[in-house]
Amino acid sequence: MLWAVRRCAAAAVMGALLAGCGPTAAGTGGKGDGGTGARTEVKVEPIEAARSVTDAKGVTVATKAPPRRVVCLVALCDDMLTELGMTPVATNSALLAHPRFLGKEKAATIPVVPGGFLAPEAEAVLSHEPDLVIGLKDTHGKLAPALKGATVFWPVQPDKWEDSVGYLRDLAALTGRTAQGEAAERTFRAKLAEAESTRSDKTALVIFGGDENFGVATPGNDVAAGLLPKIAHYPWKSRGVDGTYSMEEILAADVDVLFVETLSFGGPSEDKLSDKLARNPLWSRIPAVRNGDVHEVDSEAWAKGRGTRSLGLVLDEATAALR
Q1: Cα separation of 37 and 31, whole Å?
Q2: Given the DSSP bridges, would you call strands 153-156 and 132-136 parallel, antiparallel or unpaired?
Q3: pTM, whole model, 2 decimals?
Q4: Spatial distance between the Cα atoms of 68 and 138, rounded to a whole number of angstroms
Q5: CB under 8 Å to 175, separation ≥6 — which residues?
């Protein structure tokens, strides 16, 4: 359940247990296993403007004219628009308030779609007269019938950074902002390639949660976590929707650097997840905790952003911590 909550960035009760999935420590190869293969290609192929695109998931999106009024129901949309020099006419994400995006003052001028992430109101969405609405497929797909005929709905579902780049390129083609799309992709690819060239041999871990329950972010289930094996030793593998790692397993893995995402539901969190986990006696025995290498990170960018600007921020913060 915890994975479903994070995947949807939803305001719901999390259900993973601290103890749990067996006594064996994580392991997918030694620290010198070299990551996930060849260094990322920096070259960017030209983007051509188009009225119709078919994304990597096989979804075809067509607009009569370059979309200018875009409603964002998922933070990836806000990320892509920012990269293209655009702003949404409405959003339900807090990502734009981050200093790397619009900042709090400018973000406050963007209308918020009522209903929250899980249940945005269709009438409210249409009140902004959008020519394109971008939402998460497994969360907002149910809105499609209510929007049909009034606007174009684009369901996205990124699983890895390549998906995010593909969505950016497709949106750049639709909006005609091809130069901006190419520049954003080039910047991200160069940053990732540079991070790969200075890969750390430290063991890293990204955990998330809203209370003493937590989950481990793993490649395939989490776009940002998919970057970590490229820049550090990251031995964590997905255990499916209901699987997680126990504190005992994390302790056994000798984690050098911990990144912690505190997910808040219904408002700002008063307590950091790392402070709550400190109540567990095993927490203080983790090398990263003992050595003061625990980093509370912005969950809007790390957990929800998923686009090239958010992922670039993740790379900046992660590589700095892993030095």
Answers
A1: 14
A2: parallel
A3: 0.89
A4: 25
A5: 66, 67, 68, 84, 86
